[in-house]
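hey can u run this one w/ copper (II) ion bound, need the structure tokens asap thx
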Amino acid sequence: MPLTRHIKEFKIKNAKLKIIRHSGFGIIPVILSALIGLFSFGVALAEEFNVVVKQGDLVFQPDAITIQAGDTVMWTNKDDSHHTVAFEDASVKGSENIKHGGQFSIKFNKPGAYKYYCTYHRVFNMQGTISVK
Ligand SMILES: [Cu+2]
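ok here u go:
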């Protein structure tokens, strides 16, 4: 009697193990497809691009960038001088004064070529273009 009980328990344990193993492996494709889904979704996610004004430079770097509609551009002023981001297309709202360490960002939703300049240093050709595809 004790031996049969032992066998029965063993069989039950094995059956449980099989169920656990089965469900364990079954979940891997689910996790994988979820991860692949996340990665492919990640590719479509909007990106952020950086334009910097370096110390002592009256230049936007890079001065021309190409982005996708929905992407954001962040300008950072690392110069001691103040600067602005003003668009030739007056319908695009530019920045206020950007002090040292200050930032300004815009999300571009419509395709087009957006030319901009610094109102203080336009005479020094401080300008750039954002091409939105
Ligand atoms: Cu400037």
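The chain has a mean pLDDT of 81. anyway lmk if its weird
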